[in-house]
Design a protein that fits this description.
Spore Coat Polysaccharide Biosynthesis Protein SpsA, Chain A, 9 strands, 42% helix, globular
Length: 318
């Protein structure tokens, strides 16, 4: 059976969030000429996620398959790989269990892929759907919450500068994934997994695009707007920077990337300290930038430590 588009939803304990995501997909418009399916990947949930999917399956569109599969290996990378293996669509669009697709999201995503045959991956515009009224300073750090509008018109991303689409609403060409993405990515969990996918595709010659006609809402609970959470998130993104840049790099490139990452981020960190050292305690944007730059500066050492640990683990195994 030929399928044009697969919507893949990795879920971990998302029984409370998943129904609204599925309702939005149930209400998609302009899909009459598209054959598509939905796959919910249960990533080892301990709640009633499976029962939620079953209840929707009993009263679902007969011509739009709603599938359920279970992935016991914990981690977003494992769940996404399972989705790719189970999918039969030409394109696979990933939605998290807190992503609400616009009514024409499937159609906009499929048409863009058809019109851009060299696109290996592409993302769209993400708006915030806040549980409580957000503080004004959230504008300075909204990119940490995958809330972004990259441009008014379709535009190529810049992978060399790590300007890439978030995983929320990311669409990939399935054949490109199968050719370029290893079964186990370096970044297993959130924080770098999204970017690693695009970096690996780009290194194999695929284009990475932004498509503003693909729009989703990202539901943001109150705790994700707390200062401590946002700073820890910024630090996490910084810490995985080097590992992402080294994804699929040739052996001779790695020392250069390590040195450039450390020297460039150290310079930026020093400049930030000079310009904002009096504001980091009161300004959320400055505090998050500080956390990100600090994480990025030590990310080469985190990468090297991980490589040594992995090597010792392999040696003990043999």
């Amino acid at each position: 059976m030929n399928i044009d588009f697969t919507v893949a939803i990795p879920v971990y304990n998302g029984a409370d969030r998943l129904p609204l995501v599925l309702e939005r997909l149930r209400s998609q418009v302009n899909t009459e000429r598209i054959s598509w399916e939905i796959i919910v990947v249960d990533n080892n949930s301990t709640d009633t996620t499976a029962q939620v999917v079953q209840s929707f399956q009993t009263n679902w569109h007969p011509h739009i398959p709603l599938k359920y599969c279970f992935e016991p290996k914990q981690g977003l990378a494992h769940a996404r790989q399972k989705a790719i293996e189970e999918a039969i669509g030409t394109f696979v669009g990933f939605l998290d269990d807190d992503n609400l697709a616009a009514p024409d999201w499937v159609n906009a995503a499929y048409e863009f892929g058809q019109m851009h045959p060299n696109a290996g991956a592409y993302g769209g515009q993400t708006e915030g759907d806040f549980e409580v009224s957000p503080p004004k300073e959230i504008e300075k750090v909204k990119a940490l919450l995958a809330i972004k509008k990259y441009a008014d018109q379709p535009k190529l991303y810049e992978p060399e500068k790590l300007r890439l689409p978030a995983g929320a609403g990311l669409v990939v060409r399935r054949q490109a994934w199968l050719k370029c993405i290893p079964p186990c990515l370096s970044r297993i969990t959130r924080g770098g997994n999204d970017y690693e996918i695009s970096v690996r595709l780009h290194r194999q010659g695929w284009e990475i695009w932004y498509n503003p006609s693909m729009q989703i809402q990202h539901r943001i609970p109150a705790h994700r707007m707390e200062r401590s959470y946002l700073i820890s998130l910024a630090r996490l993104y910084g810490l995985c920077t080097c590992e992402i840049r080294l994804a699929a790099a040739k052996p001779w490139e790695k020392p250069i990337i390590l040195i450039k990452t450390f020297s460039g981020s150290l310079r930026r960190l020093i400049l930030h300290l000079i310009n904002h050292h009096n504001h980091s305690k009161t300004d959320l944007g400055a505090a998050c930038e500080m956390a990100f730059l600090l994480g990025m500066t030590i990310s080469p050492f985190v990468y090297l430590y991980k490589q040594v640990s992995d090597q010792k683990g392999r040696s003990r195994a043999t």
